[in-house]
Structures are given as structure tokens and as C-alpha cells.
Amino acid sequence: MSAADGAWKITINTPMGAQVVTATITTNGDTFSGTTVGQMGTADVSGKVNGDELTWSTDITNPMPMKLEFTAKVDGDKMTGNVKLGMFGNAALSGERA
Q: Over 80: is that where the pLDDT of 69 sits?
């Protein structure tokens, strides 16, 4: 079991305001899978694990189509990171165990 396994409440500080999602993460070696639930709907996610760092991307359609690229570092019951918002720059990400 990795430090990232479990349920997380993640806040992404976007230019349009804070977006809060609940993520459930299950790691398997150097990869992980899970689901996110938030204002933009429910999505399956999968990505890579490198020590205490998670990376993944997801395509959204609301409020407009774009690819979001996530990098998050897990430290105990906290998570910090960055989301690349396509052409809209970057947004800070923070999370805590749910």
C-alpha cells in the first residue's frame, strides 16, 4: 500500500474559482487508478507513481474542451501540486485525506 492510497478531497484553484473534487486512489507498483467526483462530473483516472509523486491527465468538456495535466506530491495526509490548464496556464492543487 502506497502513501497515496485512499480517498482524498482535492481543491484546484482555477481562474474561474476553486474546484473541489473527491478522488479515490489505488496504487499498483508504479501506476495508479481511481475515480474523481466533482462539479464537472465523475471520471475514471489513471496515472504514474514515482515515489511520493503522482502524475496523470484527464480531458474535460465543461466549461470547454481541454486537457488537464496533474502533478501531485503526497506527504502523509496532505497533497500539493500543480494542474496545467491547457492554454490557461497553471493552477495550484492541494488535497487532504477525506
A: yes
Q: What is the DSSP letter of 64?
A: S
Amino acid at 53: E
Calpha distance 35→9 (Å, rounded): 12
Residue 17 lies in a domain: yes
83 lies in some domain:
yes
Cell 500500500 maps to which residue? Answer: 1
- Alpha carbons 23 and 65: distance in angstroms, whole number: 21
Burial code of 20-51, b = ≥16 C-beta within 10 A, e = fewer?
A: ebebebebeeeebebebebeeeeeebebebee
Q: How confident is the model at residue 95 (pLDDT cuts 50, 70, 90)?
A: very high
Do 79 and 96 meet the contact criterion of CB atoms below 8 Å apart? yes
Q: Tell me the β-bridge partners of 77.
A: none
In a domain, 1, yes or no: no
